[in-house]
Amino acid sequence: xxxxxxxxxxxxxxxxxxxxxxxxxxxxxxxxxxxxxxxxxxxxxxxxxxxxxxxxxxxxxxxxxxxxxxxxxxxxxxxxxxxxxxxxxxxxxxxxxxxxxxxxxxxxxxxxxxxxxxxxxxxxxxxxxxxxxxx
Length: 135
Fold this sequence. Notes:
By secondary structure, the chain is mostly helical. Helices cover 63% and strands 3% of the residues. It has helices at 2-20, 32-49, 51-57, 59-64, 69-84, 93-104, 108-114, and strands at residues 25-26, 89-90. The chain has a two-stranded antiparallel ribbon. α1 (2-20) crosses α6 (93-104), α2 (32-49) packs across α5 and α5 (69-84) crosses α6. The model has no long low-confidence stretch (mean pLDDT 76).
């Protein structure tokens, strides 16, 4: 269920990037929504498998650049997904780095809706004597 939610949110963010960022386009001859869904599937699988490894490997550079290098990692993942989709998704480097800001922000939305804070439970014991002195 978590993967399906992540896939849907990625498809929405890819569609937003195609619609809002000039230069990013779906290069398929079929319906564009099929290309967006297929590309979002590939990108979701890459984000689940390769992205954590790249985040750990690039952590020193990301800390030195105050998090800006994270956009380079996301642009690289976008290029890997475009390469695996065999030319389904087309964009230049600068356009892809701008579009990766749209696509990278999708990772926070599925987790934001499913986070539940921990509740403290109160345990009332009937065996303990009352503090007021009443038996």
